Amino acid sequence: MDMFRGFNIIQMEIAETFDDLDHAKYNEMKLNWADTIFPCFSFISGMLLKQDKIIPLNKNIQLIGLGMTFNLIPTILENKKFRPLGVLQRHGLSSILLNNLIPPNYRNKIIFPIALTTIWSLISKYLANNTDKPFENEIYTAQQKIDSIFFKGRQYHDNFDPEGLLGALMTTVTIWLGSWFISQNFNYKIIPFIGFSFILFGRLLSNAFPNMYPVSKPLWTPSFTLQTTGYSILNYCISNWLCLILPTSISNSIQLMGQYSLENYFFGELLLVGLKESYVRSSGVTLWDKIKSFFKFKFPFTNIDMSPYIMTSIFNVVLLGFTHLCHWSHFKIRLF
């Protein structure tokens, strides 16, 4: 599991470095590599429920608090409006719904994710302005209507937040699927086929009902849930495979990154924000673009720009160094 988390952190930094892999825009209604990262972490937390049946309420509340504290940084430094929502807050809310509001005897039954999907579908359709095309305009979606009541003027965009409250229902399903998957004890040989089946089912659902179940991370639709679950299962297979083929020193380093996944998330995001928001006065470009242009060159006999690959390598080496520093200093963010 440490290798799985560490491998996902590396993917997160790759997606941040390559612009083409970044999150799909709302109106694109498709799946980019960056869109699979957060669902994979949610899936992993579900897999760990086998070892820890119920996550205490105070841990989830602390996770929400950590996310809000992180969002205070731009509020204090740049005088921006405070945004209460975020990925950690979404995960904390979903975990509360799964672990603390639903009795275990109901939570573990297949009817639970079916009920959540049904509730999400009904709210998304009938609370939207256009019931035939409920997601045509993000301003008039059910998610935006709910969020505007609680967070008006404090969202990621003025008219929509990709980490909206309604999406927490389907994020809960993602966590549930992780718990279900690990409890089945599938034969390792058939696990890849299970992953591809989820991806195929998600695509069929989005093709059959494009207006109701488009693939979208900002909405966290059922088709998105199925496809990202499939990719999470495939990533789990790759992680196991990496444990077998990588040299022990590299394997141990990736696992160590997985053990400090929360610390790496905060450090990586802060470093990226600092680089991408800091402008070099002499040139008027960001520090990130300045460094990127320094490494910009074409690979011999090709037209491939090597700067993103070099930036990714450097960034992950820095993260690895930070991980060893945390390990050496015994620094760890603990949820009590």
Task: Note the topology.
Blueprint: H1 2-17, H2 37-47, H3 57-78, H4 87-99, H5 104-107, H6 111-126, H7 142-151, H8 168-183, H9 191-208, H10 222-245, H11 248-259, H12 261-277, E1 279-280, E2 285-286, H13 287-294, H14 307-329
Antiparallel strand pairs: 1-2
Helix pairs in contact: 1-2, 1-10, 1-11, 1-12, 1-14, 2-8, 2-10, 3-4, 4-8, 6-8, 8-10, 9-10, 11-14, 12-14
Can you offer a commentary on this structure?
The protein is mainly alpha-helical and 336 residues long. It has one domain. The chain has 14 helices and two strands. A two-stranded antiparallel ribbon has the order 1-2. Helix 1 packs across helix 10 and helix 12 crosses helix 14. The longest helix is centred in the last third of the chain and has 24 residues. The radius of gyration is 20 Å and the shape is globular. The model has no long low-confidence stretch (mean pLDDT 88). Keywords: Membrane, Transmembrane, Transmembrane helix. This is Heparan-alpha-glucosaminide N-acetyltransferase catalytic domain-containing protein. It comes from Pichia kluyveri.
